[in-house]
């Protein structure tokens, strides 16, 4: 065993674990990345995350400039401040990337997600599911005698709250888009 390793029953730290607990705090960040809309770009961006063991909590991508052939990738990720800075620096060095914005640190932004939520139930469960859908402003986009599919747009927290309430009422299935986000204000 390494001489610097923690001895059994000792309070000493290993030389390999000298970070303070403050360095370990993880934060969730929303990154907006403008890239060329060409094959393989998304795979390269995602490869950066998977190759370094970074997790992606949410991912959306769509073409936003048809004439300029550009797409916006919105990624929600969690990590320590150092990891987030490393992710941004590595993304900015990629050739098909035009710009990277950390919406979380750059100021106010609007982030929304779309979810489709299937709930099966009859009687009181069905009535309660419909009542709660009104409270959350969810739309019924499909209905049978035994089930509904609700469409809900909002923050991830709002969607999670609705899903949690639907669980005891007969939640069957959930499909989510991931967060789409833009910085507030006139600048693009």
Short descriptors:
single chain, 188 residues, Alpha-Beta Plaits, disordered N terminus, alpha+beta, 5-stranded antiparallel sheet, 2 domains
CATH superfamily of the largest domain: ACT domain
> How would you characterize the largest beta sheet?
5 strands, antiparallel
Global mean pLDDT: 88
Rounded to the nearest angstrom, the radius of gyration is 22 Å
CATH architecture descriptor name of the largest domain: 2-Layer Sandwich
Percent of residues in β-strands: 35-45%
Spans of at least 5 consecutive residues whose pLDDT stays below 50 are 1-20
Give the topology string: H per helix, E per strand.
Answer: EHEEHEHEHEEHEE
Class from helix and strand fractions:
alpha+beta
Overall number of strands: 9
CATH fold descriptor of the largest domain? Alpha-Beta Plaits
- First-last Cα distance: 56 Å
The total count of helices amounts to: 5
Which CATH class of the largest domain applies here? Alpha Beta
> Can you tell me the overall shape?
elongated
Q: How many domains make up the coordinates?
A: 2
Please give the share of residues in helix.
25-40%
Protein name: Acetolactate synthase small subunit
Subunit structure: Dimer of large and small chains.
Pathway: Amino-acid biosynthesis; L-valine biosynthesis; L-valine from pyruvate: step 1/4; Amino-acid biosynthesis; L-isoleucine biosynthesis; L-isoleucine from 2-oxobutanoate: step 1/4
Family: Belongs to the acetolactate synthase small subunit family.
């Amino acid at each position: 065993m390494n001489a610097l390793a923690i001895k059994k029953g000792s309070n000493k730290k290993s030389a390999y674990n000298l970070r303070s607990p403050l360095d370990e705090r993880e934060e969730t960040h929303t990154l907006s990345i403008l890239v060329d809309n060409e094959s393989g770009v998304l795979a390269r961006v995602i490869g950066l995350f998977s190759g370094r063991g970074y997790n992606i909590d949410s991912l959306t991508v769509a073409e936003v400039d048809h004439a300029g052939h550009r797409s916006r990738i919105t990624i929600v990720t969690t990590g320590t401040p150092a990891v987030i800075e490393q992710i941004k620096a590595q993304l900015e060095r990629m050739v098909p990337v035009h710009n990277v914005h950390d919406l979380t640190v750059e100021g106010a932004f609007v982030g929304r997600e779309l979810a489709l939520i299937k709930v099966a139930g009859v009687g009181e469960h069905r009535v309660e599911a419909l009542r709660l859908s009104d409270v959350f402003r969810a739309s019924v986009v499909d209905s049978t005698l035994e089930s509904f599919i609700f469409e809900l747009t909002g923050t991830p927290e709002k969607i999670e709250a609705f899903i949690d309430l639907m669980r005891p009422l007969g939640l069957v299935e959930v499909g989510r888009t991931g967060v789409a986000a833009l910085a507030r204000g006139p600048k693009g």
